[in-house]
Amino acid sequence: MKYYILFNPLAASGSCENKLESLSINKDTNQVFYDITSNNYENLINNLENDDKIIICGGDGTINRFINATEGMKIKNDILYFAAGSGNDFAKDIGVLETCDPIKINDYIENLPLVTINNKKYRFLNGIGFGIDGYCCQEVNRLRRETGKKVHYVPIALKGLFKYYTPTNAEIMVDGKKFFYSRVWMATSMKGRYFGGGIKIAPDQDRFASDGKITFLAAHNMSRFRILTVFPSIFKGTHPKYTQYVDIHKGYEVAVKFDRPTPLQIDGETIENVTEYSVCVPLVKAFNPKPV
C-alpha cells in the first residue's frame, strides 16, 4: 500500500509543506509526494493499486483543483483530506479541526453543484462568491503572490466596502423565479455555510440535506455606511435578520447576471471580469454522513 500525498506548495501562504510534518500517518508506509500544481492526475489515478490511498493536503482551493481536474474519472481508492490551508472553510463546515487526522471525503466530493462561467463548467465544494467577495479573494490572492505572506480577508473587505468596490445591478433567476436588485454587493451561491476563512455567510445551509439544494444570497440596496453596519453580523451568521437588505433563496438552479464585469471566486479561486454565472444541482439524494 502507498500513500499518494497531494499537496499545494502555495496553500497556507506557502507554508503547506511545513504543515505536512504534522500529518499523522504510519511513517513506515510507502509515501509518494505530488505537487498538485505540476502533476498529471490521469497518470496518477491510472497507476493506483486497489489498496493505495490519496491524501489531499491544502485548503479549499486545493480540493477544488482536485475535484475539477479529476472530473469524470472513476476513483475507487480512499481519498483523504488533511486541512492545511489558510481558510479551511470545508473543514469548518463538516466539523473538522485543522489539527485533526486526515478524514475520508469520497462521499463529500460526489454529486457536487456545477457552475458555468464563460461557457466553462466547474464543480464547487463550498460556494460561489460574486461581487465584493470575488473582489476580496482577487486582492488576497494578488497580495499573497506579491508578498509571499499570509493576507487576511477582513481588512481587504473593509477597504473594499469603504472605497474600492462599487456595487452593481443584477438580474437573478432561482428555479425559474426572476428577481431584480440594485446596488448588489454580493450574489452568492453556497453548498456549505462558510467562505472567506470562517465567515458564516449561509448559516442555514445544510450540505447534507436530502434535497441537495443550495442557498443563494443577495446583499443589496445598501449605502457604504449601511453595509458597514450590517457586515459585522455575518461573522455570527445573524445577517439574515436584515430582510430589507438581505434576500435568501434555496433552490436547484441559479442564474446571476451583473450589469458590469466583476471578480468571482470559486472556493477561493478567482476568475476576473465575469458578468454572469449559472449553477445547477444534481437531482440525487445527498450524502448523509456519520458525525465527524
- Report the helical percentage: 10-25%
- Give the overall shape: globular
Distance between the termini: 25 Å
Question: What CATH architecture of the largest domain do you see?
Answer: Sandwich
SS-based structural class? alpha+beta
The main pleated sheet reads as:
10 strands, antiparallel
Predict the CATH topology of the largest domain.
Answer: Tumour Suppressor Smad4
Number of strands: 17
CATH class of the largest domain: Mainly Beta
Low-confidence stretches: none
Compressed to H and E, one letter per element, the order equals EHHEHEHEHEEEEHHEEEEEEHEEE
Strand content is 25-35%
| Mean pLDDT rating | 87
Gyration radius from CA atoms, angstroms: 19 Å
Structural domain count: 2
What is the count of helical runs?
Answer: 8
Task: Please specify the SSE layout and strand pairing.
Blueprint: E1 2-7, H1 11-14, H2 16-19, E2 30-35, H3 41-46, E3 53-58, H4 60-69, E4 78-83, H5 89-93, E5 103-104, E6 114-117, E7 120-123, E8 127-130, H6 132-147, H7 153-164, E9 168-174, E10 177-184, E11 186-190, E12 194-195, E13 199-200, E14 214-219, H8 224-230, E15 246-251, E16 253-266, E17 269-280
Parallel strand pairs: 1-2, 1-3, 3-4
Antiparallel strand pairs: 4-5, 6-7, 6-17, 8-11, 8-16, 9-10, 9-16, 11-14, 12-13, 14-15, 16-17
Helix pairs in contact: 6-7, 7-8
